[in-house]
Design brief:
Elements: H1 31-47, H2 59-73, E1 78-80, E2 86-88, E3 95-96, E4 112-116, E5 121-123, E6 134-140, E7 149-151, E8 155-156, E9 172-179, E10 185-190
Parallel strand pairs: 3-4, 4-6, 5-7, 8-10
Antiparallel strand pairs: 1-2, 6-9, 9-10
């Protein structure tokens, strides 16, 4: 999806709110700025096996989780490499993330990652983003539990809410991600995963 600037704006101009106190006019919004993201969201919901429902505002997260779950179940996946040539994955092996400050996540290594926490950490700026891909990060609590996980600004979450891990000892949470064309990554927690 391409960014659609305000009417009369340059390619990457931001939208501004009206402010009567300063005399600032709000940005005029072209129809494509609303229509294109809505169509893309509906397409993702349908691709996730759901029927769009105006009364269910959590469908996108569920659809992304469904898409990721189905993609991970595939033994043979074809995807674009950095050189934009097709490569055939040999199935998915978990890549263990090294607990550091922040945690480095190279998304070109796999579609399945594991993270064993010993203390609260931050997922660093994601690297290795190759086209539209989805996958999981399996996060395990230590014997004592109570470890949180914050994220770099390029990890996007629903309503910009922080990821809320299960804090009980030895708990396992599944985080599902989808890479976006703007170099950011949408991240959500799969409820009742294990």
């Amino acid at each position: 999806m391409k960014y659609v600037p305000p009417i009369g704006g340059a390619a990457n101009d931001p939208y501004v709110n009206e402010n009567p106190g300063t005399g600032t006019e709000g940005s005029p919004v072209p129809a494509a700025a609303v229509e294109h993201p809505l169509r893309e969201i509906v397409a993702a919901i349908v691709a996730g096996g759901l029927t769009p429902d105006e009364n269910d505002l959590a469908q996108l997260a569920v659809a992304i989780a469904n898409i990721a779950e189905n993609a991970i179940d595939l033994a043979d996946v074809v995807y674009l490499s950095v050189a934009q040539t097709f490569m055939k994955a040999k199935g998915f092996q978990y890549v263990a993330l090294v607990e550091a400050s922040p945690i480095a996540v190279d998304l070109s290594q796999s579609c399945a990652y594991s993270l064993n926490l010993t203390t609260s950490r931050t997922l660093g700026d994601p690297t290795g983003i190759v086209g539209a891909r989805c996958g999981i990060i399996e996060v395990r609590q230590p014997v004592g539990g109570n470890c949180g996980l914050s994220t770099h600004a390029n990890w996007l979450t629903e309503n910009d809410e922080p990821i809320s891990l299960t804090l009980t000892p030895n708990a396992v949470d599944i985080l599902v991600y989808l890479t976006l064309s703007n170099g950011k990554v949408f991240l959500t927690k799969r409820e009742n995963a294990l």
